[in-house]
Structures are given as C-alpha cells and as structure tokens.
Amino acid sequence: MAPVRIGILGMGTVGQGTVRVLERNAEEITRRVGRELRVVHAAVRNPARLEGLGLDARISSDPWAVVRDPEVDVVVEVMGGQEPALSLLMAAIAAGKHVVTANKALLAEHGNEIFAAAQARGVMVAFEAAVAGAIPIIKAIREGLAGNRIQWLAGIINGTSNYILSQMFREGWDFQQALAEAQRLGYAEADPGLDVDGGDAAHKITLMASIAFGIPVDFAHCHVEGIRALERTDVVYAAELGYRIKLLGIARRRADGVELRVHPTLIPHSHLLANVEGPFNAILVESDAAGQSLYYGRGAGGDPTASAVVADLVDVARTMTADPSNRVPHLAFQPDAMSALPLLPMAEVESAYYLRIHAHNRAGVLAQVATMLAEYEISIEALVQKETPEADSVPIVLLLHRCREGDLEQAIARMEALPVVVQPVLRLRVESLAEG
Ligand code: NDP
Ligand code: HSE
C-alpha cells in the first residue's frame, strides 16, 4: 500500500521526537499498520535549526505550505499556542486532512468547534499526546473503560510542576533553579507560567473530564491554582501530619454537576500518587465496574510525547479508510449524546482541608479560631503549633474534616479579620483518594 504522508507543524521538542521515533521504529510501525508512515513536509520558523537532522522531507518556514500541500494526508500540529495553530487546524480539517495534535491549550479552549468541524468533515482529530505525555490515558478512558460509568479521576498531570516540587522538597533546590532545569530538559511550556500556575494541568483535566463524563469541553469553568504559594514549611507540616503535597487535577461527577479543579493537594504519604516524582505523571480513575485503576508514566519530554503522537498516527492510518460513523467518537460519546451536567462553583465543593494561620502568640487565639469553625459546623481533625518563643507570630496548622468550601471561606474571612491574625490564611485541600 502507498505510504501515509505526514506533514508536521513545528519541529521543536515534540516534533523532532516524533521524527526520531518514526525513523527508529519504522520497521515495527510498518508491521503494525501495514503501510509506511512517511514525513513528507515539515514547517518550522527557523529552518536552519533542522540542519544536521538529515530529515528527508520538504522544509518550509510557512506552516500554511504544509496544510495546503496536496501531498499531505495527515497534519501533525506540534507548534503550540492558539494562533496560527487554530486557523491551521481548521484549514486542514476543511481540506479533509486528518489531524494529530499535542496542543492541549488549543483543544481545551477551542475543542468544541474543532471537534464539531472534524465531525462534519468526517476526519479524525487525535490528541493522545495532549494529556500526560507517554501515558495512553485518552485511549484508556475513551476505549478501555468504555463499559464503565466513571465517577472521578485525579492526576498528577503536569510534569514540570511535579519535577519542581520534587527537586525543591527532596533535593533542596530553589524554585528558579528547578524551573530552569525543567525548561532545559524540554518539559516546560513555551510560557512556563502555564506549568507553575496550573493552567496546563487545567487544560488536561478539562479534556479528560469531557471524555470521562461525556460533557462539552469547558476550560473557562475549571478552577485553577498553581504551586507558587507553597512554602517549604507547608511540606514539612504536611509530612508531620502524614501527607505529601502534589499539584492535582481533579474531575468528579456528582448528582448535581461536575467538580473540575486544579490545585496543590495533600494526599496520604503512603498513597501511590504521593510517590510519583520528577517529570512522571499518574492518573487515578474510579469507575463502577473496574474500580480504581492507575496509569503511570513519563508526562513530558521529546520521546515520551512522540510515543503518543506516533500511536495516534498509527490509529489514524489504520482507520482513515473506514466509514467515519464506525470510528471512535472524538470525545468518547456520540456528539448528539453529550450531557449538559453543569460545572460546579468551588463554594459547592466538599473536601477536607489544611489551614496555615499565622497569629500573634497570645492566649486564647486557638479558642477563637476553633469557635469560628464550630459556628460553621467544621470540625478539627489535627493541630500542629510550633513553639517559637522568640517570634511574635506563630504558625498554627489545622487539619479539618470534610466540609463545604463556601462555609470554610466564610470562616477564613472572619479569622483574617481578627487583629491577632497577621497574614492571609493558606488553605489547601486534602484528598484521601480512597476507593468508594
Ligand atoms: P517547542 O517550543 O520545542 O517547539 C515548537 C516548534 O514549533 C518549533 O520548532 C517552532 O519553530 C515551531 N513553531 C512555532 N510557531 C511557529 C510558526 N508560526 N510557524 C512555524 N513554526 C512554528 O515546543 P514543544 O515541542 O515542547 O511543544 C509543542 C506542543 O506540544 C505544544 O502544544 C505543547 O504544549 C505540546 N506538548 C509538549 C510536551 C513537551 O514535553 N514538550 C508534552 C506534551 C505536549 P522554531 O524552532 O523555529 O522556533
Ligand atoms: N509542560 C507540560 C508538562 C508538557 O510539564 O507536563 C507535557 O504536557
């Protein structure tokens, strides 16, 4: 059979990784697909960067030349960002070309229009590489768990921030040093603020929630907090209480809607997720028939992400001649069977909590704090107060039983208004991740 002809937009970490894996494993891939996957055209802003790669393909500095190339059957978009990536993808779809993309930011913000256009045109938009690098989590949720009703998923889904947390709190590095190394290793986004402020994880959990629950892609309503506010003392106190702090993306289906959130989270130190270090990712899925299942692997970097891009290319090559109605739906559920479950505001979320309160070292402070919590029926599970006789203020760390976040926020506002409380209260959520 004739080769499948591939055009690549972007030849950075992921683009070059994709070419490398396609070349290295060409024989195995052809044995699987039954035809060759051949890169015929690539676009990069600065073609001089590709000298020495030995790529036997046309090279353009204009990405439109790839999309308009009649010799290209499948467009791989690994350039990133919103524009011109969105216009290029839409043009490729309109031209009847299948698309493979690693661009979670684009899909999380424009997925509904992209998938609708692809559905109407009968082409595939495959995005395994957009979530959790090498881990085949999209395939696992969309196909492997297709017989299940999925209740919730929780994951470490940003390799850069997990790498930074690991290096800071296990190796003693400072934040900037760890971020610079994550950038050098090719883990970070072009804008690393997306990694450390939680946006990248939010893009990914938004996509996973959509295929897990059959809801439209709705990034605008995802709650996002990053890792910048964390201090080493929080990690130490969390450890004393038996927890590790990880940046988690969480999507939970409830009777009245869906919780969709990204934030630093205390999880029991003995839990498997607590021991996921460096650029590794892991996603825990709870579903009714399978129970809990855990997916672990490299979440970022050239070859790991290329593994997912090439798997998508194999899928596309295998099914490009099939009737579109017989293909797996883009978002796992039939487009006319999507659910209208609302995304819930954070005030409606229920969780256990960790509070760090800095207060003047005066008698009666603890009693005041406990009374305020009690007025909202929030009970204290554990307390750590460090004796620092010379200091004017002391950190009081509380672990709270499950409560409604809206109630806790009201109690915190009242604590912060106390003259003895000297800085904003840090509030972190605590998840047991227990089955059931
Ligand atoms: P890089 O910055 O390493 O590479 C981007 C590439 O796109 C570069 O070759 C750049 O050209 C090219 N490019 C950007 N804009 C244009 C344009 N207008 N015209 C032509 N070429 C352009 O990014 P990554 O490879 O790291 O990431 C690519 C995508 O993959 C992003 O969406 C990212 O979120 C996603 N991703 C990345 C992962 C990773 O571990 N790095 C993992 C999973 C997903 P030039 O080199 O000349 O600047
Ligand atoms: N910047 C992303 C991360 C790349 O660190 O996880 C993988 O999506």
TrEMBL record:
It is an enzyme of class 1 (oxidoreductase). Its EC number is 1.1.1.3. NADPH binds at K104. Pfam families: ACT (PF01842), Homoserine_dh (PF00742), NAD_binding_3 (PF03447). One of its GO terms (biological process) is methionine biosynthetic process. L-homoserine binds at E189. Residues 354-430 form the ACT domain. Belongs to the homoserine dehydrogenase family. This is Homoserine dehydrogenase. The lineage of its organism: Bacteria, Pseudomonadati, Pseudomonadota, Acidithiobacillia, Acidithiobacillales.
